From TrEMBL:
Family membership noted in the UniProt record: Belongs to the RNA methyltransferase TrmD family.
All residue ranges annotated as the tRNA methyltransferase TRMD/TRM10-type domain in the record: 1-221
Residues engaged in binding S-adenosyl-L-methionine: G110, I129, G130, D131, F132, V133, L134
Organism annotation: Mycoplasmopsis cynos
EC number of the protein: 2.1.1.228
Listed GO MF terms: tRNA (guanine(37)-N1)-methyltransferase activity
Gene that specifies this protein: trmD
SUPFAM superfamilies referenced in this protein's UniProt entry, alphabetically: alpha/beta knot
One of the GO BP terms on file: tRNA N1-guanine methylation
GO terms under cellular component: cytosol
Chief localization: cytoplasm
Subunit record text: Homodimer.
Protein name: tRNA (guanine-N(1)-)-methyltransferase
CDD domains: TrmD-like
A Pfam entry, by short name: tRNA_m1G_MT
Length: 227
């Protein structure tokens, strides 16, 4: 998989590439990450990529031309193109699963007051990571990319994510424990030590539902409505 990031702050992405699972996937050539500073495609002598808002308004908008030219410069025009925006559809595990099959994905990271609306016409999807606003699209783009990349075959062991939260009917993951068996009076559930796999699996499923009901009742409501 190839992942492109269009940004005016390319240094944001160096730590993302240099550490942990992402770095290992790069070294194994399972993925390729390309960071493009779309200021380089500005025809303004000062490399300006934003301007005032027609009709009035606060702040400045990113212009369409530098972003369009940056996309045109990419092989396959960037593959599946995502505009990172708080106005987009909320990213989730289902979307991550679907995008992990793509050969190439491009994230367009916003800044300032937002984008010229015509930029929306250049992309395949407009995605958000939640109902809040950040100073730019770089962090959300890395969050989504990390979620997608870990699902690409060979990046991590498949067993490591098959039972993740949101994978099994959308439920949260069941509680998990390690040593010590007891800490300050808090004990690991005894069922996990009895060797009866049927009982352990039943406990895990029940615990999944209980944890999801406690932390994300909206998921339980959705599952009930789907019946």
């Amino acid at each position: 998989m190839k992942v492109n990031f269009l940004t005016i702050f390319p240094n944001y992405f160096q730590p993302f590439k240099d550490e942990s699972i992402i770095n290992k996937a790069l070294n194994k050539k399972i993925i390729d990450i390309n960071v493009i500073d779309f200021r380089e495609f500005s025809k303004n002598k000062h490399k300006k990529v934003d301007d005032e808002i027609y009709g009035g308004g606060h702040g400045l908008l990113l212009q369409i031309e530098p972003i369009d030219l940056a996309l045109e410069s990419l092989e396959n025009k960037g593959g599946y193109k995502i505009l990172v925006s708080p106005q987009g559809k909320t990213f989730n595990q289902t979307i991550a699963n679907w995008l992990s099959d793509k050969k190439e994905i491009t994230f367009i990271c916003g800044r300032y007051e937002g984008f010229d609306e015509r930029i929306v016409d250049l992309v395949d999807a407009e995605l958000s990571i939640g109902d809040f606003v950040l100073t730019g699209g770089e962090l959300p783009a890395m969050v989504m990319a990390d979620s997608i990349i870990r699902l690409v075959p060979g990046v991590i062991n498949k067993d490591s994510y098959q039972n993740d939260s949101f994978q099994n009917k959308g439920l949260l993951d069941y509680p998990q424990y390690t040593r010590p068996r007891e800490y300050k009076g808090k004990k690991v559930p005894e069922v996990l030590f009895n060797g009866n796999h049927k009982e352990i699996n039943e406990w895990k499923l029940k615990a999944q539902w209980e944890k999801t009901l406690k932390n994300r009742p909206d998921i339980i409501e959705r599952l009930e409505n789907e019946k």
